Amino acid sequence: MEERSATASSSPAPQKAAAKTVAAIDIGANALRMVVAQVTPTGEIEVLERLQRAVRLGQDTFRVGRLGGQSMRAAVAVLRDYSQVLRLYHVERIRAVATSAAREASNADTLLDRMFMATGVNVEVIDTSEESRLIVSAVCDEMEAFLDTSKGDTLIADVGGGSTLLTLLHDGKIITSHSLRLGSVRLQEMLATSEEDPKRSAELFRQQIEKEASTMDRFLSLDHIELFVAVGGDARFAARHVGEPTAVANVHLIRGEAFDGLVSRCVRFSAEALSKRHGIPFAEAETLNPALLVYQSLLRRTRADRMLVSEVSMRDGLLLDLARDVTGVEDEALRQSAIQSATSIAEKYHADLEHARTVTELSVRLFDELLPDHGLGTRHRLLLRVAGLLHEIGGFVSNRSHHKHSYYLILNSEIFGLNREEIRIVALIARYHRRSLPKPSHVEYVSLPRQTRVVVNKLAAILRVADAMARGHIRQMRELQFERAGDDLVVYVHGVADLLMEQRAIAAKGDLFEDIYGMRVRLEEA
């Protein structure tokens, strides 16, 4: 074949962007699941293959608190098989996550290390808030028509092997999420029902579910819920048997009476009988009755007389994240959810929301002005915004050293849409909004990778200056105008005659900013 060389008179034809192949892996309490898909340049997802293999990791964790050698060997073997499929499809981007069984196992790191050494796949243990976010993201994407028209309160419930994840929405927007220790595998291991007859097993399940749900009622009432959405394999089983089609594909409606009838029929049979009767794998039959009883208990606590069953799973949420990642599209719903979650935490600890919001808007304005200097992205902008909202919640514990208390409270909070590493970054940004700068004696800071420490420094420097500016009369962002003047960043303030308080505060707190950005902040009247 004759080679062609590029010349001045001939330019190569523009190449059409190619689709990307991605994979999502979910290491749960009773199975390892994987979905492989292609993402087009426009963000459309085409599923190529879905795989599922039963591995009862939760059986060990929920019984003795650690993973057994046999379970770990089985999980590693399944992931090794999956890695061959990844190579076959030439997968370019992978996200692998582990949930409750690994989250609660004392030796989870051993499993993750063995998986990485055997396959090269880096598995991330996610917390319940991230798990909820992924599920809700998939549900909202599929059920947009339902949720947009729902002007009341919605509950999304996912009964998994280790826990039940509850997410509350108001007018289609996420309000809060909670996790209950009511997983189907956990209930079996906790109550040791394998040797009990079906009727006795069902009674034990009901008692434990009511005990846990009664505890939930103290802080989370469901009697105002008008729309109940169920997610999970056991809910899909119910939809296949007593569900009715809806206007949305892959969404079924189950009336309360029909669901109660299905539960009454199923709890009469053992797992072996259910497996034979309905032609489902034994591993799925084992989890069916406890899961159906959890859904039934939750539905009865709401105002809803029916439930909608969505066929999506957490893996669909992972695929949506991967699609946004490869196409560079920001998830606006995620951003709003994180802000709402942070605001709820600030209210819980009685923070001064007016001051927090002022600091936050000043921080974001500075972030945008300094974009060429810090080179950070939209995700870091969100972390700064969350830190601004939460930076003074430590005053709930004590005004003395409240920045340290803020660090502790944030670190031990669940912020919807942020993973544990991001929450740690937010906690450190808030910790350094006053007093001491980051130093080698701060173990929580020096234990971070260098790249993450740089991010903390850049964002904490901005927050310190914003907090100083908010100590006086500056309240409106339109009052500000920025200009570079040599080594100074000059901020001109309109409509404020006396800036002495702000200028003194910046002189006291601008040290980190000068170290990081190589410039001083100077306030002047416009």
Notes on the structure:
The protein is of the alpha/beta class and 526 residues long. The chain has 23 helices and 15 strands. It is elongated and about 80 Å long.
Number of helices: 23
Helix share bin: 40-55%
Structural class by sheet pairing and helices: alpha/beta
**Total number of beta strands:** 15
Which term fits the overall shape? Answer: elongated
Cα distance spanning the termini:
70 Å
Low-confidence stretches: 1-11
For the record, what is the CATH homologous superfamily label of the largest domain? Hypothetical protein af1432
Largest sheet: 7 strands, mixed
Mean model confidence by pLDDT: 90
Which range does the strand content fall in? 15-25%
**Radius of gyration over all CA atoms, rounded:** 26 Å
Strand order across the largest sheet = 8-7-6-9-12-11-10
Count of folded domains:
3
What is the CATH top level name of the largest domain? Mainly Alpha
**CATH architect. name of the largest domain:** Orthogonal Bundle
What is the fold named in CATH at topology level of the largest domain?
Hypothetical protein af1432
